[in-house]
Structure formats: structure tokens, C-alpha cells
Amino acid sequence: MKKSNTPRYVSRAELKKERLDVFKNAPVFLRWKTDSTNVRLKMLAERGATEGTLYIARTQTKGRGRQGRKFFSPKGNGLYFSLLLRPNLRAEEGGLITTAAAVAVCRALSRFGAKNPKIKWVNDVFVEGKKVCGILTESHAEQGKIVYAVLGVGINISVPKKGFDKSIQTVAGAAFAMPVSPAALLAAFLDEFCVLYQNISALPHYGEYRSRMLFVGEKVTVETANDRFYATVLGITPTFSLSVRMENGEVCELSQGEVSLRQGAIGKE
Ligand code: BTN
Of 80, 156, 167, 185, which is best to mutate to test ligand 1, by the most ligand atoms within 8 angstroms of its C-beta? Predict the structure, then answer.
């Protein structure tokens, strides 16, 4: 089989070609291997790194996901990076970053031919029924205001040679069937994200987030730290809380925190 010329790794040369200048010359850290780009960038943020600083790794040994989960980050198949933001947002508005990033990821994937990317509230992007991207924003606030936010994005560009880890085999998938350059994908993401970020308090991504959402009108299982219930998804509120109708007919709003969703009513199928 003919080998593709599309690079499988982010390199300095590729980054240069893509001209990642959206955050005006903020530094770019590029590593072969790191524990977690979010952890590394948080350390830099604490030491005063500027907005727009990027931390990219070709593989992560301790990629972090929401709710203490691991994010599988094999080399040669994905794009794993963190972007430092210093937004003018209140602590409770931190979710705007994750949701804007989800829309930006969908747009970037579409530029390279991914079919109709969808968002699973609140931070996952799906293509053809499989999770292809996870987003984890970790922020630090003082006196109710965000001092910095580390936006971490992991995208499965292609299927790893040995397949996805057993623990995620049924859920995870690749965004593309054809090779796509991770640096070009990163540039497309930054391009799309910056447009939304400039005006983020005005919720420029709200309509698109809603229209890309999975499970609207469907039954889901809602899991919190100490509860599990069935509900029908109605949509999202302007603060990106999930609006659901419970089985007793009551409508309630779930905020992002520690809630996760599963398709269908488990045990009731
Ligand atoms: C999730 O699926 O719950 C979120 C996954 C976020 C993964 C990305 S990969 C780059 C950045 N560094 C991390 O340790 N996590 C994020």
C-alpha cells in the first residue's frame, strides 16, 4: 500500500507552515511525550505565562479526562494540546470555554471532511456515533473571577495500530478515514475558537451548540455522584445547563459539574 505523505505528528516545521499567530506570538511548547499537557500548562500559568501559550504533546502518559477519568493518548494517531486563556469571565462562566471549544472542534473537523460532528453535552464531540474528541477545561479563580483557564483538547485523528484501549473500545472512534495533519487541524481549531472567544460573553456559539447536540428528545440515563435517574433531554439553557424532563414530568436543569449522560434508559431497554 502507498504510504501517505500527510504528517502524523505535529512538528515545528508543520507549525511554522500553519502560522499559528492567532494569539500574537504566544509561546508554543512541543513535546514528544508528557504526562498531561493540562498539568504542564497549569504550572506555566501559575508562573505567569501569557494568554495563548500552547502546550502540545505527541503522546501523553497521564492524559486527563473529566471526573478523574484517563484520556487515552497514543502517539501518531491524535492531537493533544492545551491552550492558556485569561478570559474576563466570572468563575461560574467557565463552562463557556468548554462549550465554545466544542463548537470550534466541530467546525475544524468539518473543514477536513468529518461527517456532521455532534456534541454530547457537555464536552465530547462525536462523529458517526463514536467519541472522537474530549475537552477538559481546568480553571483557577480568585474573588469570583477566572484568573486563568487551561483548555485541553484531545482528538482521535485515526485509529491506533493496536486499536483503542479495551476500556473505551465501544465508545471511541477516529474523526477521519483519511490521514489529516494534526498541525493543520490545530490551526483550524485555533482559527475557529478565536472568533468565538473574542466575544465569548455574548454566547456566539449558543445556537450552533444547540443544533449540534446529541440526544435531544431522547431518553438518557443521568448519573451524578450519588444518584442515577432516567430523563428525556429537552435542550440547553442560556447558561449551557442541560434541561431534562424526569419520569415524574418535572423539568430540571443540570449544571455541568459532576453529571454524566448515557444514551437510553439503562436497564429499561
Ligand atoms: C474527556 O474526555 O473527559 C476530556 C479529555 C480531555 C483530553 C485532553 S488531551 C489534552 C489535554 N491534556 C489532558 O491531560 N487532557 C486534555
Answer: 80
The reply to whether ligand 1 has any atom less than 6 angstroms from the CB of 85 is no
For the entire predicted model, the pTM comes to: 0.95
The verdict on the CB of residue 66 being under 6 Å from ligand 1 is yes
Q: By three-state DSSP, how is residue 181 classified?
A: coil
Does 69 contact ligand 1 (Cβ within 6 A)? Answer: yes
The predicted-structure confidence for 84-124, as pLDDT tens digits, reads as follows 999 999 999 999 999 999 999 999 999 999 999 999 999 99
Residue with CA nearest ligand 1 atom 16: 152
What's the pLDDT at 204?
Answer: 97
- The contacts found for 162-166 with CB under 8 angstroms, 24 or more apart, are 162/74, 164/72, 165/72
The Cα 3–Cα 6 span in angstroms is 9
How many separate helices (H) and strands (E) can be counted in the chain?
Answer: 5, 12
- 268 Cα: distance to centroid of ligand 1 (angstroms): 32
Q: Prior bond to 122 cis, omega within 30?
A: yes
13 backbone dihedrals φ, ψ, rounded to 5°? -65, -40
Task: Give one DSSP letter per residue of 82-96, joined into a string.
Answer: EEEE--S-BGGGTHH
Q: Whose CA is nearest to atom 7 of ligand 1?
A: 154
Close Cβ partners of 217 (under 8 Å, ≥ 6 residues apart): 232, 233, 234
Which cell is 261 given?
Answer: 449522560
